[in-house]
Structures are given as C-alpha cells and as structure tokens.
C-alpha cells in the first residue's frame, strides 16, 4: 500500500492530508484538474468535475497525466470506475472545435466554424433544441458555420450537453495601448505573478484570491501583459474610484488615460472603468449603455467581483468571446449556483490559493474569528416564539440584547479602527447612537462617503457603522476589527467579503478581529453557522463565546 | 479398450474400473440413486432424460463431433468425420470421440463408433440446421436416394434463381415457405420435380439432408469450432490493491446496511422481497447505484446477515449474527460474504427487470432466484483463474468462450449474466481491475475446487460450491480461513482515529475499527465514502447520539479520545447546544392520573400506605399518575374513603420509542445435503457395481447350468390361482422368489396349502417351508 497524502473517494472527491510531507507535491499534481472545495485545517477536499477535467484538457493536460497524478499520490487503490470515468470525460473534450477559417471570396475574410472529427457528435449536438438556432449553414459533413455573436452562447450550451468545444478561434488583440507596471519600491508578489501568468497563458479565465490579497494588482498585471485598451467592470462607483487610484499609483497610466463610466460620469478612454449598474440600466426595455462594449476595440475586459456578476452581464459577455476576459473574485461561491456560467463565459479558473496559505506567507493579516452568543431576554424569546416565520430572522438579529455586546467589544478595541456591519438600518442607527459613530448606508452621498472613508483612513475617526453597501471593494487600509451584528441570512460570500474587510495586512502585523454577534437558539444562530461553515472551509477556525464571558 | 461389443450395455460391461469412474464423473446423474449393476447403469445411461442432460452439458466442440457422427451414421471413420467437420485435425476429432465414448454417448463395436440410440432423438430431425434425410421425408423414395455425385450434377444444371433459393436454405433452417409469385412457384417446381426440395405441407418445403450436405460442400458446420476460442487477456496492475479497496468498501456498505435496517427495517412484501421504495431509501443512504444496492443487500442476505424476521407483520432485519459481526476480523468478514456470494443461487442483476407475470423483480424477492447463476459464476471465475495472475480477461472473448462452453444457453442471457458476474466480482474484490485477485483465486479454490483428473466433459453439477459452505450460508473450516487470509493482507488497515476539523467534519483516513465506526455513524452523518470516510456533525446527528443514550460529555470525550487533532471549540458548542435542548420535554407512559385542586388531598394519597400498591407518582403539585388501570384506581380510592370521579381516557400517552429489531436466526427447513459426486464416491460406486456385476454374472452362469423353465413375472392374483391349482392337483411349481436384498432366486416347490397370503410347501429336499405370496415374482407349473 502506498503512503500518499491523497485519498480518492468513490464520489469523486479527493481528500488531501495537508500535514503529510508530500502534500505540497500532491496539491500541485491535482490542482490542474480538481477544484478545491474545502480547505479546513487538516484535510482539504478537492472535487473532480467534468468542467475541471475539460479545463485541464484545455490547458494541455491529458487523461494519462490525471490518472498518473491520482495513482502516484493516492494512499489506497483508486476506484477503477473513477479512472475510466476520468478518461471518458476527458475524451469528450476537443471532439468539437471552434475555428476561424479563411475565406477567399468573402469581404470579411474569415468566418467562424464549428468543426468535428467525429460526425455522430456533431449530429447529436445539432439536434439539440437550444443549439440548432445558434449555428448557420452546414459546410460539409463535419463542419457548420457559427455566427461570431453566438460564440459564447454556443460554447455555454455545448458545455451543458457535455460536448465542450475547444475554442481555437483565438482572441482579437484589440487596440494597442502602452501600459506598464511601475514597480518602484514594490513588486508583484509571487502568487500575483503566478495568477497573471496563469491567466495570460490560458487566454481567459478567473483568478480567485482572498480579499486583501491584491486582486487589483493582478488586474493591473494582466493589463500590462495585454498592453491594450481595457474595459474594467466593477460593482459600484466607490470601487471604480479605488481602481482608478490604484492604477494611477501602480502603472504607467495617467489620470487622463483612465475614464469612469458610471451614473455620474460617462467618459470613454483607453482604460475605462464602468459599473455593473450602469451597464444593466434599462430604459423602455432596452439596455441603454450597451454601446460601451463596442465603443472601442477592447483588448481586455476585467470583471471585478465576478461572483456578483448580474445575469444581464452574462448575456452581454456571451457576445464578447473574441476578447480576453479576466474575472477576479475572492469566492467563487455564488448563492445562485451559476458558477458554471462564470466558467463557460468568462473562462475556467486559472488561479486559486487557499487563504491560509497566503496568510502563512504574510500577505494577508491573520484573523481571529469569534462568534459571540447573546441570550435573548425572556420577553423577546416569547415574542420570537410566536412570531411569523418571515419575521423571525429580523426579530432575532435585531435584538437589543446585542447592543451592550457591541459596546463592550468597541471598548475593548478602543483606538483600533473598527467597523460595525449590519443589515437593518434601524439597528445600525441605534448602534451608531450608542457608540457615537457615523453611519454609512445606501442613502449616504458619495461625497459624504468619501469624506468619512478619508477620515477613517486618516485615523480621525476610529469607528464606522456601515450597512451592506460596504460589503464590496471599499478599501479601508487599517480596519482591524469588524463587528457583524446582522447579515443577509446565510450568505457565505457576504461573510467572506466582510472578513475581507479586516484581512488587508496591517502595518504592524497585528491580528485582525472578526466578531459576529448572534442570538442563541434562533434562526440567527442557524444562519450564522451556515456562513461560518464557509470560513471554516477556508481554514479559519472560529471560536464561540458567550456574551456574558466577554 | 473394450473388445467388440454388441450394445451399449455390452460396451459398458467391458469397461475398466477407471473408465467407469470417468463415466460416472462425466454424468453424475447416473450415480443418483445408485444403480444396482452395470446393466442397469447402461440402461439408465441410455434413457432420454439422462442423454438430454449429457448433451446439454457438452461444449460446442464435442457437440459438433457428436452431430457429425449422427449425420455420418454409425461406424463412420475419423477421417469421414474430420471431412464433415471442415477438414478438422483428425487427432482432435479422435480425442473428442473418445471423450464422447467416455461419457457413454457413443459406444464402440467392431465396426466402429455407434451413437447411443437416444442421441438422435434428443437432437430431433434438424441437426446443425440440416433437414431430415430424404428417406425419412419420402419413404417411397428410400430405395432411390441419389448419390452425392448425382445431386451435384443436378444442382449444376439448376437455373440461377433456383440455385439462389437453395442457397438461402443451405445453412438452415432447412424448412421454407413456398413463394407466392408465379416466377417463384415455377422455380420451386423445378426444384421439387428433381427432389431437391420436398413439399411437406401445402405451402412448405424441406431441404433433404443429402441435398443440404452437398450444398454445404460436405461440411456440416459453417464454422467448425472444435477448440475453445482463445481468451484474450491484458495485463492489469495493482490488482490486489484495487480488490482490497473494493472489499473494504463493501464491508462498510454492509455495516451501514445493517445499521440502517436495524433501526428502520423495511417491510417484507406479500410476494416476498423489499419494495422499490424501500430499496431507493436504502440506495440513497448507501449512496451507490441501484444495481449495487441490490447487490449489497443480496450478499448480506446470502451471508445470513439480514433475514425476514417472521413476525406477523414481517420485516427484513439484521439477524443476531450482526451483533458479533464487528468483532470478526475484516478478512474473515469478507470471506464470509464472498463465499456466500459464490454459493448463492440468487442473481442480484435481475432486480428491477421485468419478470414473468409478476411485474418487476424485487430485491430479496422470489424472482431473483436463478440457480443457473451459480454455474455462470463458477465458469467465469474458473476461466479467470486459468489466466496468469495480473491478467485481466477481455470481456468479449470471455463471453465467446463461455458461449462455446455452454452452446445450449441463450447467448444474450448468458452474456448478460457473465457481465453481471464480472461486475459483481469487481464490487466484491474477487477481481481487481478485471483480473482475479489473490483472494479471488483462494475463493475459486475453495468454492469451486477442480476435481482431480476430471474428464474433459463434465456434467453441470459437480464441484459446486459444496465444499466450504453449508446450506445456511455459514462458511466453515479451512476454506474460509485461507480466503480470509488472502484478502486480509490487502484490506486497508483499520484506523482507530479521525481528524476533526473546524467545519465540523471528521475524516477517517481508512476503515474505522468497529466500535469507533459505529459511534461515528451514530453521532455524525456520512458525507463521502471511499478509502476514507468524511463525517459531518450536525444538530440532527448529535441528537441521534443523545437519543441513543449518550451524554454530551461522553460524545465529546469519545471524539476527543479518537481525534488526532484538537477538537474544535464549535463542535463542543454544537454538542452542548443540542444537549441543552435535548430532553427539555419529557414523555412517559401512565395508565391513569389523579388531579385535584386540593393539594392536601393528593398529599394524603401519596402518604397513604394502603395506596402504595398503586405506585403513585407526583408530576405536578396537583397531578398524580399511576400505572394502575383507572378503574382499579377508582375502586381502591373509593375503598379508602376518597370520592374520585372517572375522567375520559384522553391524555394517555403512547410510548414512542422504537426498539431495535432483530430477527431470529434464519429458520429453514432441514438443510439440503449437498454431496457432490466426487472421485471417492464414484470409486465406491464403481466397486459396488463391480461386485453386483460379479453376482449377476454368477447368477447368469448358475442360470445357464440349472434346469427348469424360465419363470415369467406373474400377477399375484394369477400366482395365487396357480398355487391353489397346484395344491389341488399335487403339482410341482417353479417360483421366483425375491429375497430381502431384491435378488430373485428360483425354487421348485410342492405347495401343500395356501392361506392368508402364505404358501406352505415342500421343497426339493422334502423340507416344509413357508413363502409369502408377495415375495413370489412369478410361478409356472413344473414340467
């Protein structure tokens, strides 16, 4: 019997014992084809999915390598059926190819063709209801014309029916624009460089990095590699400003070269930063800002926080298949389960690293996650017990029993930059009043927000109470304590994002603190458990304490 | 080799002991019940039932030689047969012929081989797709059967369409429907006029055997296959490791099945078996395919681990055997399952198929019973055992080879069964990556031992899984241990620890030792199976453990003790949270309650010694309960000066606890004794046959010397009449008298009187003797 670190399960999960001496080698061997599903302290779980296997094929790995990796590192015999399945699945990739074909007698010069080496496969897919409308005339027995605009949708549908097409049609280079990194006094970290390389060699894809690990720089690195006009899609205006500042600081780009395309401003420049919101604005049923996508011959499209990509953007992205696409995210968990769409439209995951690994390298701050349990007073318990189910969560999470706990925690960390994050505005205002702090909600103006952020950053104020508007892309360099008083039900990615608020590395290497206050024996605690499962799976062991023990 | 014989009986009487042993081994049905002497052995060997059985057991090679001999006619030379068989190797034909002679399907006379009379009957009129001979179809033409040359000449003259029509019928079937068209009719008429086709009914024609043979250019079979097709093999690596992995997985599944059915046993359907719904529930728990679920259930049943508990509402429950199961060594547990599988007559792959009449076959149901599957398992495993270790058989060539070995089986059914056996062997770990594992080889040796020096033709029965398994599926003895030892080395070593993590999962990096495995299954939900098992602690699973009587401290302590890693604090919180709420509400049973607003009255009752028999218990200041019947309570209270009134019986609480059920050990009828016809018994039989034959020969010799008439068998009524006549006329009578062992002796007697079914008579020597009439086989008057 082999003494490898890997155990291959019959349900296609791979268990990697991280404390094993050859765990690192095994991780490297399986990373190309297996998705990291959970990364708790001792045993990481990877999963072999068809998508992962096809991505591996796309990246040039063959079934033999996969089988070899499994056999070499596995502790027990690998189930034979699984090996057969791996080979069969990988064999399905590449039977269909999307190619660009030169045309002598056409004005356009080229056309896009779906070609196969295996006629029955083509016949099978062409008979699918959803695929037939996407293709044009039949050229011969083995090929059919595809309209360039259907390239993405076709790939997406082919993936769904299990015959992924190998896209050999390549990318347009786009309008060239000189962009370089200004590495004065700083350098891309090794993992950032790996992510950029991984993306660039793969053509398109998603990079998964924890919050605070410098995803913006991976974006900048990709732009420097592309040296072409770039469209950056971000979640909101504040985030757009931060991207702009960071790009000016880190690259050779100047303020004039970067445009902002948002509700407030509509600038189109060689590098344009647009919000999802403005792109998805509709007037009379039509998207009014779609032109942006064709406004320039973009060489690179960057999607920030790709796990939040709204559905209409998926459809628009389907039309952008000829351009290089980079997705950035901290978590590829989508509560709507559309991970597969992200993979098929933007591209496969090109880089992923367990948070704890990056923490171990000192690039993100170590965090102490604590769940504080408060016991509801008798009266509230009764009110909770008799309330309507839909009211329960609000009742439990807005309990005023949490207020003294927030106060106590804030006192404990006096002087440290502290964020209090919550879901319900009434509750936030109440907390702010007790702490004497400012509140930022969706109603706060951008100007006011910026002022507060600046003050917070400067250390003039140490406590901010924020609603979920602060969930994404606000960069609060020195926030080292986060107190979560209520959340969006069991949203795991929200939890991850909120933890991300405090993970940016601290100047003095301090440990960050992340508190979640929950009401005992209520749905609040159940949802909290669900959210924390995500953190635990990222390797963050959390503690539970009673409010009375604080 | 025998001297020239005149009949099968003669031939058999002339065989040596060794040859007789071979005969009986080849046709074991001849030995049961034991024939009295060689003559009756020969008679039995010639019966249609026995011949049919022997012919069905022939492989394709021997079958083809036998067919050739039937077609060629008695006394055909080996060369003739080889020609008929498409120019086959004469030595092979001769060897096959000897095998057929050994099996007494053929007997030898001075003029060559003769087919036993019943063989053509068993074949019927169509042999290898050939029609009946001309003489049989048209007795009137018997004297004018054309020779092959004449036929060839006639056929050469045939017009193209006539020849096409003949060609269609060449390789059978030799019966055809007359074409309806005019052109077709005239073609057929041309053929019929020349006796190339013979009409057998208004619209049907037959191709006579002679014509067929000419058309086939003297060959009987399109593709003579005297030798078995080669078995293709490919090398397989890590065979034993893979087998060990599967074996370990199966053991886990069986444990899980037992745990599941112990808690919630599925109902036994009225027609037997488990309902489709229950099977699906089981399947979801085991998290495997439906086929594999059926297999696990059937194997557990075959090994006697689950059974019908035989209650009024019967359920399938683990047997008492399951309680000792975890303490048995893993290798031995596997051997028990594997031997049970090998000996089982149940075919799990039939589950879910449409069975005749009764709908789909249910797992553990009667439709899954298919005794032939055991033979298929034996054949498949023996074929695999013939390959070198580490060689996996190619499924297609294996199927072809088995089809050659069993030509009488429907190819599709056989192919299906072979596939199922290969699949099950893989699940079981008898094979790993298609090659027989070391343990698999030990299993074959134990369950299907080869008979030493066995003749090349074997009956269907011999060497069945009789050796190591008694009828109730309990393996025993050395076989079990050798199989267990062979597997034990390749089973993943059991681990006694888990790795507990902050996301509330616990990973067991191998099969857990029995008690820990049971605890983990109880206190956590299984999330992923395979070499390792991933468990997840959830509020529900922890509650389950508490329900089963564990305390929160015990749960935490057990986890702490068995975890290699520190127990994460959230797990402790989870357990204590669940424990805090566990048992907040209590439920119990009481037969009656007493309530009163006057607490003092209740105090008095509790204190009263006279009422102590009622075992009153105070639940609340104003409520007492008792396990006595309300009426008894009322009577007794009244007797003691209280004035209770009867309240309705609502409020009686039903005890909701479900006990774990266990079926009794499987009740079966007396165990059918499997006593294989092996070498020893056969030798024994032949010895006794020899002895009987010697006696018979003596008797024949004696018979020849003795004077007197032959004694016909007569009806007792006739005998009695004759004896009475003889008494009246003082005549002597020859009687045949059968003695206690059934040997008939002849006596000349002078009957004196006949009374009450007995005859008093004087024998030759003048002594008076009594004979029972029912012992007298026949009688005839002297002279």
From TrEMBL, chain A:
Domain Helicase C-terminal: 397-550
UniProt key word Hydrolase: yes
InterPro entries in the record: ATP-dep_DNA_Helicase, ERCC3_RAD25_C, Helicase/UvrB_N, Helicase_ATP-bd, Helicase_C-like, P-loop_NTPase, XPB/Ssl2_N
Record EC number: 5.6.2.4
Gene Ontology MF terms in the entry: 3'-5' DNA helicase activity; ATP binding; DNA binding; hydrolase activity
Pfam families: ERCC3_RAD25_C, Helicase_C_3, ResIII
PROSITE patterns linked: HELICASE_ATP_BIND_1, HELICASE_CTER
SMART domains attached to this UniProt entry: DEXDc, HELICc
Domain of life: Bacteria
PANTHER family, alphabetized: GENERAL TRANSCRIPTION AND DNA REPAIR FACTOR IIH HELICASE SUBUNIT XPB (PTHR11274:SF0), RAD25/XP-B DNA REPAIR HELICASE (PTHR11274)
Family as reported in the entry's similarity comment: Belongs to the helicase family. RAD25/XPB subfamily.
Protein name: DNA 3'-5' helicase
Taxonomic lineage of the native organism: Bacteria, Bacillati, Actinomycetota, Actinomycetes, Micrococcales
UniProtKB/TrEMBL annotation, chain B:
InterPro entries given in the database record: XPB/Ssl2_N
Source organism per UniProt: Humibacillus xanthopallidus
Helicase XPB/Ssl2 N-terminal domain ranges (all copies): 498-620
Composition skew (Basic and acidic residues), residue ranges: 696-706
Keywords recorded for this protein, A-Z: ATP-binding, Helicase, Hydrolase, Nucleotide-binding
Keyword set includes Hydrolase: yes
GO MF, one example: helicase activity
A Pfam family that the UniProt record links to this protein: Helicase_C_3
Entry annotated with the keyword Secreted: no
The name this protein goes by in its record: XPB/Ssl2-like helicase family protein
Residue segments, region Disordered: 656-676, 693-712
Coiled coil: none
């Amino acid at each position: 019997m082999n003494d490898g670190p890997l155990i291959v399960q019959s349900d296609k999960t791979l268990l990697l014992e991280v404390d094993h001496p050859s765990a690192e080698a095994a991780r490297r061997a399986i990373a190309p084809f297996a998705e990291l599903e959970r990364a708790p302290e001792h045993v990481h779980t990877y999963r072999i999915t068809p998508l992962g296997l096809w991505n591996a094929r796309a990246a040039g790995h063959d079934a033999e390598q996969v089988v070899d990796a499994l056999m070499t590192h596995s502790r027990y015999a690998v189930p034979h059926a699984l090996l057969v399945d791996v080979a069969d699945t990988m064999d399905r990739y590449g039977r269909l190819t999307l190619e660009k074909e030169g045309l002598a007698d056409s004005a356009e010069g080229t056309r896009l063709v779906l070609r196969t080496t295996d006629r029955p496969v083509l016949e099978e897919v062409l008979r699918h209801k959803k695929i037939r409308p996407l293709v044009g005339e039949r050229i011969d027995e083995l090929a059919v014309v595809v309209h360039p605009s259907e390239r993405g949708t076709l790939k997406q549908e082919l993936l769904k029916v299990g015959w992924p097409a190998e896209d050999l049609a390549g990318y347009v280079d786009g309008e060239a624009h000189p962009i370089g990194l200004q590495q004065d006094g700083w350098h891309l970290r090794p993992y950032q460089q790996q992510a950029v390389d991984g993306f660039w060699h793969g053509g398109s894809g998603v990079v998964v990095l924890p919050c605070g690990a410098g995803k913006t720089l991976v974006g900048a690195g990709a732009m420097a590699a592309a040296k072409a006009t770039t469209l950056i899609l971000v979640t909101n205006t504040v985030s757009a400003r931060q991207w702009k500042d960071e790009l000016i600081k880190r690259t050779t780009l100047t303020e004039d070269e970067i445009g902002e395309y948002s509700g407030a401003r509509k600038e189109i420049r060689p590098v344009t930063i647009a919000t999802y919101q403005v792109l998805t604005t509709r007037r009379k049923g039509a998207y009014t800002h779609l032109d942006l996508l064709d406004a320039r011959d973009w060489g690179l499209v960057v999607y920030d926080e790709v796990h939040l990509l709204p559905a209409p953007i998926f459809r628009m992205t389907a039309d952008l298949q000829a351009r290089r696409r980079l997705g950035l995210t901290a978590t590829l968990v989508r509560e709507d389960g559309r991970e597969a769409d992200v993979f098929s439209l933007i591209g496969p995951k090109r880089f992923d690293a367990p948070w704890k690994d990056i923490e171990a390298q000192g690039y993100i701050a170590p965090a102490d996650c604590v769940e504080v349990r408060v016991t509801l007073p008798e009266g509230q318990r009764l009110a909770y017990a008799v309330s309507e189910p839909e009211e329960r969560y609000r009742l439990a999470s807005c309990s005023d029993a949490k207020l003294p706990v927030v106060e106590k925690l804030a006192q404990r960390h006096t002087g440290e930059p502290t964020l209090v994050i919550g879901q319900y505005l009434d509750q936030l205002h109440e907390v702010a009043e007790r702490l004497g702090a400012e509140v930022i909600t969706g109603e706060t103006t951008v100007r006011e927000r910026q002022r507060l952020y600046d003050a917070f950053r400067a250390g003039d104020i140490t406590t901010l109470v924020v609603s979920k508007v602060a969930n994404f892309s606000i960069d609060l360099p020195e926030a080292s304590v986060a107190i979560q008083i209520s959340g969006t039900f069991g949203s795991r990615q929200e939890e991850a994002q909120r933890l991300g608020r405090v993970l940016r590395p601290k100047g003095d290497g301090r440990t960050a603190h992340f508190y979640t206050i929950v009401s005992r024996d209520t749905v609040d605690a159940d949802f909290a458990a669900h959210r924390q499962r995500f953190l635990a799976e990222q390797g963050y062991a959390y503690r539970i304490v009673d409010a009375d023990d604080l | 080799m025998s001297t020239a014989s005149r009949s099968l009986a003669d031939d058999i009487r002339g065989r040596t002991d060794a040859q007789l042993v071979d005969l009986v081994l080849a046709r074991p049905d001849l030995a049961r019940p034991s024939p009295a002497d060689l003559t009756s052995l020969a008679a039995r060997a010639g019966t249609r039932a026995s011949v049919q059985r022997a012919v069905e057991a022939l492989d394709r090679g021997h079958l083809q030689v036998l067919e050739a001999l039937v077609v060629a006619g008695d006394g055909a030379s080996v060369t003739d047969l080889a020609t008929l068989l498409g120019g086959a190797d004469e030595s092979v034909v001769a060897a096959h012929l000897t095998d057929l002679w050994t099996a007494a399907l053929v007997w030898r006379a001075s003029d060559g081989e003769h087919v036993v009379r019943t063989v053509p009957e068993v074949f019927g009129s169509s042999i290898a797709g050939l029609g009946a001979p001309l003489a049989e179809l048209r007795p009137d033409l018997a004297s004018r059967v054309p020779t092959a040359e004449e036929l060839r000449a006639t056929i050469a003259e045939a017009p193209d369409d006539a020849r096409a029509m003949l060609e269609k019928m060449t390789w059978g079937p030799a019966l055809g429907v007359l074409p309806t068209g005019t052109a077709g009719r005239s073609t057929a008429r041309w053929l019929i006029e020349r006796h190339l086709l013979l009409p057998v009914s208004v619209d049907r024609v037959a191709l006579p055997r002679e014509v067929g043979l000419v058309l086939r250019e003297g060959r009987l079979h399109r593709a003579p296959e005297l030798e078995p097709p080669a078995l293709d093999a490919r090398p397989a690596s890590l065979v034993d490791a893979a087998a060990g992995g599967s074996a370990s997985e199966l053991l886990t599944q069986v444990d899980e099945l037992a745990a599941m059915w112990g808690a919630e046993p599925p109902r036994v359907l009225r027609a037997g078996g488990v309902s489709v719904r229950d099977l699906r529930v089981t399947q979801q728990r085991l998290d495997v395919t439906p086929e594999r679920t059926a297999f696990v259930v059937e194997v557990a049943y075959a090994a006697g681990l689950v059974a019908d508990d035989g209650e009024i509402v019967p359920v399938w429950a683990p047997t008492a055997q399951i309680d000792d199961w975890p303490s048995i060594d893993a290798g031995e547990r596997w051997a028990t399952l594997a031997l049970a599988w090998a000996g089982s007559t149940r075919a799990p792959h039939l589950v879910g198929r449409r069975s005749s009449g009764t709908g789909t076959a249910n797992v553990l149901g009667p439709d899954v019973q298919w005794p032939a599957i055991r033979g298929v398992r034996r054949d498949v495993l023996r074929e695999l055992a013939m390959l070198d270790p580490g060689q996996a058989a190619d499924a297609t060539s294996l199927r072809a080879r088995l089809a050659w070995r069993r030509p009488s089986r429907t190819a599709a059914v056989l192919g299906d069964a072979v596939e199922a056996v290969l699949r099950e062997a893989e699940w079981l770990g008898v094979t790993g990556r298609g090659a027989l594992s070391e343990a698999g080889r030990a299993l074959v040796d134990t369950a299907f031992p080869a008979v030493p020096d066995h003749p090349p033709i074997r009956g269907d029965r011999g060497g069945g899984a009789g050796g190591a398994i008694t009828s109730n599926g309990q393996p025993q003895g050395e076989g079990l241990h050798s199989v267990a030892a062979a597997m034990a080395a390749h089973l993943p070593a059991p681990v006694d620890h888990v790795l507990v993590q902050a996301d509330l999962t616990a990973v067991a990096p191998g099969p857990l030792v029995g008690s820990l495995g049971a605890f983990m299954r109880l206190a956590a939900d299984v999330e992923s199976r395979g070499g390792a098992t991933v468990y997840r602690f959830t509020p529900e699973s922890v509650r389950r453990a508490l329900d089963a009587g564990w305390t929160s401290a015990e749960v935490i302590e057990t986890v702490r003790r068995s975890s290699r890693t520190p127990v994460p604090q959230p797990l402790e919180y989870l357990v204590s949270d669940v424990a805090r709420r566990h048992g907040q509400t209590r439920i119990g049973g009481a037969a009656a309650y007493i309530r009163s607003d006057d607490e003092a009255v209740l105090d008095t009752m509790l204190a009263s010694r006279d009422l102590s028999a009622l075992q009153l218990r105070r639940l609340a200041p104003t409520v007492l309960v008792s396990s006595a019947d309300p009426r008894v309570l009322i009577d007794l209270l009244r007797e003691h000066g209280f004035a209770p009134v009867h309240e309705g019986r609502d409020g009686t609480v039903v005890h909701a606890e479900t006990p774990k059920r266990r079926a009794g050990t499987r009740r079966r009828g007396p165990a059918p004794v499997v006593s294989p016809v092996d070498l020893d018994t056969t030798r024994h039989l032949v010895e006794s046959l020899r002895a009987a034959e010697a006696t018979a020969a003596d008797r024949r010799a004696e018979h020849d010397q003795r004077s007197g008439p032959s004694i016909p068998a007569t009806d007792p009524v006739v005998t009695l009449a004759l004896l009475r006549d003889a008494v009246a006329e003082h005549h002597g009578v020859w009687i045949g008298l059968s003695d206690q062992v059934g040997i008939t002796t002849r006596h000349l007697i002078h009957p004196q009187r006949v009374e009450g079914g007995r005859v008093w008579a004087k024998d030759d020597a003048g002594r008076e003797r009594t004979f029972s009439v029912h012992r007298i086989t026949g009688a005839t008057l002297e002279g």
